[in-house]
């Protein structure tokens, strides 16, 4: 999933890491002849890459970034409740990281990450919601779920 570079920092081994809009990091090493990224060793080179996109494999794997905190109490949803406008606004597209947990029944979900295939999540399973993707939920009767949203402090 393509994500914009928002900054850079040095890791513990003095390698440059691109900070991505999704809060993941991705190493950008200049290690010729294996990897040639001479732009990463200068401030001007790094600054010129701000706003450009990298493919974030961690988003592709639905890995939530470290250091996120829950925004509020989980939102409870069941088949008898309509999705409140406030929740639907957060799902189309997802505005921040989320964790969807099915507590009872089955849920069908389409979010575009897996070629718009319908994912079925059953009781006891959970799914990470990724910012930037639109999500469509289809609840079967007697389905109950909890949704937590997360952000940085």
Distance between the termini: 24 Å
Alpha-beta content class: mainly beta
User: What is the radius of gyration computed over CA atoms, rounded to a whole number of angstroms?
Assistant: 19 Å
Average of the residue pLDDT scores = 88
Q: Summarize the helix and strand pattern as letters.
A: EEEHEHEEHEEEEEE
Helical percent range? 10-25%
The residue ranges in which pLDDT falls below 50 over 5 or more consecutive positions are none
Strand content bin: 35-45%
Shape: elongated
Number of strands: 12
Biggest sheet layout: 5 strands, antiparallel
The number of helical elements comes to: 3
Considering the chains and any ligands shown, give keywords for the structure.
about 150 residues; mainly beta; elongated; five-stranded antiparallel beta sheet; four-stranded antiparallel beta sheet; 12 strands; about 10% helix
How would you characterize the overall build of this protein?
This protein is mainly beta and 153 residues long. Helix content is 12%, strand content 38%. The protein has helices at 43-49, 57-60, 85-91; strands spanning 2-10, 16-20, 25-27, 53-55, 69-70, 75-78, 98-104, 106-110, 119-122, 126-129, 136-139, 144-151. It contains 3 helices and 12 strands, in the order βββαβαββαββββββ. Strands 5, 6, 7, 10 and 12 form a 5-stranded antiparallel β-sheet that branches. It is elongated and about 60 Å long.
């Amino acid at each position: 999933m393509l994500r914009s570079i928002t900054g850079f920092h040095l890791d513990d081994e003095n390698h440059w890491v691109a900070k991505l809009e999704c809060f993941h990091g991705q190493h950008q090493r200049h290690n010729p002849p294996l990897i040639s990224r001479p732009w990463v060793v200068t401030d001007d080179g790094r600054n010129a890459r701000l706003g450009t996109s990298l493919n974030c494999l961690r988003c592709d794997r639905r890995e939530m970034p470290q250091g996120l905190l829950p925004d509020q109490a989980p939102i409870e949803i069941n088949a008898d409740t309509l999705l409140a406008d406030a929740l639907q606004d957060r799902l189309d597209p997802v505005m921040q990281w989320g964790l969807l947990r099915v507590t009872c029944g089955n849920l069908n979900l389409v979010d575009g990450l897996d070629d718009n295939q319908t994912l079925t999540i059953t009781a006891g399973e959970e799914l990470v919601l990724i910012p930037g993707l639109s999500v469509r939920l289809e609840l079967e009767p007697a389905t109950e779920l909890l949704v937590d949203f997360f952000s940085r402090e």
